[in-house]
Design goal:
single chain, alpha+beta, four-stranded antiparallel beta sheet, 1 helix, elongated
């Protein structure tokens, strides 16, 4: 019985993590489209990062993104998804810290 519960828990964690990343990227794509941008690169940032204090909550995933606007200009920076209470589960909010030109 314990083995069944353990396997079920593992499968649930894998499915949940997959949903978490898919939801995060969907939030970023929706944000970019709303701003008139095309998301050209999206990379999840694990653990150590230069703005660790900005990534204050594991429920709020941080991505390194590159976007292109309608005129062809490219920008890059760190994007944090979701809100402080429920992360991407309860919010489609995106905050971006753009790299210096």
């Amino acid at each position: 019985m314990i083995a069944i519960v353990a396997v079920f828990s593992l499968v649930a964690m894998i499915i949940g993590k997959g949903w978490y990343y898919a939801r995060s990227e969907a939030v970023l794509r929706k944000w970019a489209k709303k701003k008139g941008l095309r998301l050209t690169h999206c990379e999840y940032r694990y653990g150590l990062m230069p703005l660790k204090w900005w990534a204050n909550n594991r429920l709020r995933p941080v991505y390194y993104i590159k976007v292109r606007d309608r005129s062809g200009q490219e920008r890059s920076g760190l994007a944090r998804c979701g809100n402080i209470f429920g992360g991407v589960v309860s919010s489609s909010q995106v905050e971006v810290r753009w790299d210096e030109p």
